[in-house]
Automatic annotation (TrEMBL):
Record-given protein name: IS110 family transposase
Annotated InterPro entries: Transp_IS110-like_N (IPR002525), Transpos_IS110 (IPR047650), Transposase_20 (IPR003346)
Lineage top rank: taxon: Bacteria
Pfam families: DEDD_Tnp_IS110 (PF01548), Transposase_20 (PF02371)
Residue ranges of coiled coil: 180-207
GO biological process, one term: DNA transposition
Keywords: Coiled coil
Domain Transposase IS116/IS110/IS902 C-terminal: 212-289
GO function term, MF aspect, one: transposase activity
Positions of the Transposase IS110-like N-terminal domain: 7-145
Length: 339
């Protein structure tokens, strides 16, 4: 029995379909409103539905899987080259349909509701951290204009703010002092919100066995572990740890011609947030670890600091994939033997 493949272009209200009827070979296109999508696919036999991995894609993927269809999510950058005419919903749906049938195509793993929820917490925390950093930097700059210098570090700097404001009471107008005190209170409020989100992630960590196993890896804390589990979706979507590291942009870019291939800097593709967490974790291991593996010592002797940090982050990513894909627990001796 031949299976029909659909190309579905997602939108907020109007969805575009493109498919070829396997019995007749007839090319068909159809526009569906939001409330018609599930009703249409409920009447079709089990099919392959391809979509771009964009906003709401995982939601629709879960709904269609529940109806018995196979869903394939494609990174938008792979679809773009197949839009050969002017861009439109119909052209996008046809490009998705053509892309999904290319051999060797990689697909994005469908995330569960819990994984998407954890990623939402990470995105909210990341934005709050950026807002807090902006507020602190502005407060530092404003106080510096009047001769008040704050020590480096968020905790030390904010601890000196009340004293700096007290010294400027006779210099600044009362309304300016009130505004600065309000900004300090705003920073403290942002810190409380960030701590609340971190407490929620810690609570999820206690319920998820995979997160607990990942936190045994040196340099992997609750933020990195929860983000890795939520971002990966299904570890089986990657054939190896190297593919997972490449997905995070922790492998070199290639440039080759005439039979000569040159390795460049890391590609920085994929999820930049998880890549940043891994690099920060690797930097912490190199800075604070008292005992290093022979592999790490040898690499540090012949490579620059940043190169060693990225290499260790790459190894951490491969280890994360191995633990998730094979259900293993971290064994320091086993990892050292591979190194």
């Amino acid at each position: 029995m031949k299976i029909t493949t659909f190309g579905l272009d997602l939108a907020k209200q109007v969805f575009q379909l493109h498919w070829v009827e396997v019995e007749t070979g007839e090319v068909k296109r159809r526009r569906l409103k939001r409330d018609q999508v599930l009703a249409f696919f409920a009447q079709r036999s089990a099919s392959v539905v391809a979509m771009e991995a964009c906003g709401s894609a995982h939601y629709w993927a879960r709904k269609l899987i529940g109806l018995g269809h196979e869903v394939r999510l494609i990174a938008p950058k792979f679809v773009r080259p197949f839009v050969t005419s002017n861009k439109s919903d119909a052209a996008d749906a046809q490009a998705i349909w053509e892309t999904v049938q290319r051999p060797g195509r990689r697909f994005v793993a469908v995330k569960s509701e819990a994984q998407q929820g954890v990623l939402m917490l990470h995105r909210m925390r990341e934005q709050l951290v950026k807002m807090r950093t902006m507020q602190i930097n502005q407060l530092r700059g404003l106080l510096y204009e009047f001769g008040a210098t704050l020590p480096q570090g968020r905790h030390k700097g904010m601890a000196q703010v009340p004293q700096a404001l007290a010294q400027l009471e006779g210099t600044l107008p009362a309304m300016v002092l009130d505004a600065l005190r309000e900004q300090r209170a705003r920073i403290e409020s942002l810190s409380r919100e960030i701590e609340h989100i971190e407490a929620q992630l810690l609570a999820w960590k206690k319920e998820d066995e995979a997160v607990k196993r990942l936190m045994d890896i040196p340099g992997v804390g609750v933020l990195t572990a929860t983000a890795a589990v939520a971002t990966t979706g299904q570890a089986s979507a990657f054939r190896s740890g190297r593919e997972f590291a490449a997905f995070l942009g922790l492998v070199p870019r290639h440039s080759g011609t005439g039979g000569t291939v040159k390795l460049l800097n890391i590609s920085k593709r994929g999820d930049s947030y998880l890549r940043k967490l891994l690099i920060h974790g690797a930097r912490a291991v190199l800075t604070h670890s008292k005992v290093r593996s022979s592999w790490l010592e040898a690499l540090s002797a012949r490579r620059t600091w940043n190169t060693v940090v990225v290499a260790l982050a790459n190894k951490m990513a491969r280890t994360i994939w191995a633990l998730l894909a094979h259900g293993r627990t971290y064994d320091r001796g086993y990892a050292a033997g591979l190194a």
